[in-house]
Specification:
The chain is α+β, with helices and mostly antiparallel strands and 87 residues long. It has helices at 9-14, 41-50, 59-63, and strands at residues 21-28, 31-40, 68-72, 75-79. A hairpin with a 2-residue loop joins strand 1 and strand 2 (31-40). The two termini are 21 Å apart.
Length: 87
């Protein structure tokens, strides 16, 4: 098993893009399709601050500029970042 590289809430917030809306992707075994949606910055900040775990996802999410991952129930929420978080 590959060990996940975790981020603090502060590190995740610092990686967010500018603007009032931030793109997210929900995907995982409980989600039958990849679902994308724009969330308000306030909603994303709340999710990040309340998350028990924040980590850097793999290459596909990174190439899509969604460099923050948060487990949610059986799925993962991938959050848009200004830059790749794995470099």
């Amino acid at each position: 098993m590959v060990e996940k590289i975790t981020l603090s809430a502060e590190e995740a917030i610092a990686a967010l893009p500018e603007g009032n809306d931030i793109h997210t992707i929900l995907n995982g075994p409980g989600c039958p399709a990849i679902v994308g949606a724009d969330y308000s910055r306030e909603r994303v900040l709340k999710i990040i601050k309340e998350a028990p775990l924040i980590f850097i996802p793999g290459g596909i999410a990174q190439r899509m500029k969604h460099g923050i991952a948060i487990p949610r129930d059986d799925d993962y929420l991938y959050i848009e970042t200004a830059n790749r978080t794995d470099v």
